[in-house]
Amino acid sequence: MIGIDIGGANTKVVDDSGVHIHYCPLWEDAPLSDILLQYKDGQQDSAAVVMSGELADCFENKLQGISFIVDAVREVFPEAQFYGTDAAFHRGAVPQLAAANWLASADLVREYYPTAVLVDVGSTTTDIIPLGRFSELCGLTDLQRLQKGYLIYTGMLRTHIATQITCVNIHGIDTPVSAEYFATSADAHLVLRHITPEEYSCDTPDKKEKTKKASLRRLARVVCADLVEIGEEGAMDVARQFWDRQRGMIGDQVRRVVRETGATGPVIAGIGAPLFAQECGGILLFDKLGAVADALPAFAIREIARCDRCSPGSRPRA
Q1: Alpha helix locations (H) across the chain?
Q2: C-alpha pair distances (Å), 45 with each of 2, 3, 15, 92, 253
Q3: Residue 47 burial by Cβ neighbours in a 10 Å radius (0-12, 13-18, 19+)
Q4: Domain 2-99+295-310 maps to which CATH number in 2.40.40.20, 3.40.190.150, 3.30.420.40, 3.40.640.10?
Q5: Which of 10, 31, 61, 268 would suit a FRET pair with 278, their CA atoms being 20 to 30 Å apart?
Q6: In the CATH scheme, what is the code of domain 102-284?
């Protein structure tokens, strides 16, 4: 049994050998079936799947995206089962499969920390999930989670800088930013040494190097400048002010959800976990689960499906 989490940009697989993360942008016709084929062998021919990639803008609507993903997976794993926002497994393409990966994480982690708030800081988004209210979480769409503050569209790698800040202070002057796609959160976190070049696993906006110098050039363009004009320190100011905004957004929302739900505190997972554990406090899920905490939905759905297989009928199926 393998666990698969198919996002719009990344496909994550957890199997007996560990965690495997593939940059797989669905909007660029990435070969999803070919990526999955390498995980099929005589010993490992079943899969449990969650997704969020149905929202990619190459699809006309979510159901079309769901159908594409289901067909691509079943081409490799004909007996694959797909977990939905109703906390049930499905065999075919149904609306409940849309963006259910966060619920799979909650379904597993609540067994360990039933009164905590799970904070999963990924490459693109941050999930803030009050585990003590699981029954109320079932059925929530991403639209509803945005409205409740349980989903924040900011992450460690793919966040467009100009969506988080509208003005930065450069050499003592308040400076509006350009809304062009010049730099991402990965550039800010790389120059601030929050991530390594190897962890910059998505495409760069300009398709160029993943180095500190290249990231500083991209950050300078956010204020319509280059490094000759504002210097490396000016570009670093863009990164620092982006980070101040991002950590404030996430930290404030985590504290609000903990307070309003009466939770005991946060449990933090995802690639941003070490950084945000310093900001929000709480427990690092890595300390309990190891490296799979960075691919939590894929690990969670594998464990849930394996439990169901050992105890048939323990979970509703459709």
Answers
A1: 32-37, 62-76, 101-109, 134-137, 142-148, 185-191, 212-221, 227-261, 273-280, 286-289, 296-310
A2: 8, 11, 11, 18, 41
A3: buried
A4: 3.30.420.40
A5: 10
A6: 3.30.420.190
Question: Is the CB of residue 152 less than 8 Å from the CB of residue 119?
Answer: no
User: Distance between CA atoms of 262 and 260, rounded to whole angstroms?
Assistant: 6
Hey, what amino acid is at 140? L
CA–CA gap between residue 282 and residue 280 (Å, rounded):
6
Contact 266, 119 (CB under 8 A): yes
Residue 87 region, left (φ>0) first, then alpha (ψ -120 to 50), else beta?
left
pLDDT tens for the 318 residues of the chain, in order: 999 999 988 999 999 999 999 989 898 888 999 999 999 875 556 999 999 999 999 999 999 999 999 999 999 999 999 999 999 999 999 999 999 999 999 999 999 999 999 999 999 999 999 999 999 999 999 999 999 999 999 999 999 999 999 999 999 999 999 999 999 999 999 999 999 999 999 999 999 999 999 999 999 999 999 999 999 999 999 999 999 999 999 999 999 999 999 999 999 999 999 999 988 889 999 999 999 998 999 999 999 999 865 544 444 443
